């Protein structure tokens, strides 16, 4: 796993990137309980379901509030799946694994099967 704390956006395309690779961007506001829970839940989720196929960029809006506009962040914590396309957003502490799997298109909803 690679975790990147960034002051700015990462490149959106990388020609060497595997199409099954997930680029996830987590927006938080400082070290609040929800932000810490979201970071912990995201790391656990990725290790269990995306091992070796993801990178995480953590953006702290307390340090860089202007970065919220790029991904239209209205609530925090918010997880944004930048790659693979299309862009997806999940708001909250990411504690419900099934909702995260469905929200990131890793698992289909039961009613779609």
From TrEMBL:
Gene3D superfamilies (UniProt xref): Glutaredoxin
Residue ranges, annotated region (Disordered): 1-21
Top-rank lineage group of the source organism: Bacteria
Name under which the protein is recorded: Circadian clock protein KaiB
InterPro entries found in the cross-reference section: KaiB-like, KaiB_domain, Thioredoxin-like_sf
Boundaries of every KaiB domain copy: 25-106
UniProt source species: Methylobacterium phyllostachyos
One GO process term, biological-process aspect: rhythmic process
């Amino acid at each position: 796993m690679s975790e990147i704390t960034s002051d700015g956006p990462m490149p959106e395309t990388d020609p060497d990137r595997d199409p099954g690779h997930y680029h996830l961007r987590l927006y938080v506001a400082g070290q609040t309980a929800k932000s810490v829970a979201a970071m912990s839940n995201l790391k656990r989720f990725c290790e269990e379901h995306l091992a070796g196929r993801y990178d995480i960029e953590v953006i702290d809006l307390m340090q860089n509030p202007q970065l919220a506009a790029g991904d239209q962040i209205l609530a925090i914590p918010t997880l944004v799946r930048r790659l693979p396309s299309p862009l997806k957003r999940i708001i909250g502490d990411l504690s419900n694994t099934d909702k995260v799997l469905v929200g990131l298109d890793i698992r289909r909803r039961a009613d779609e099967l």
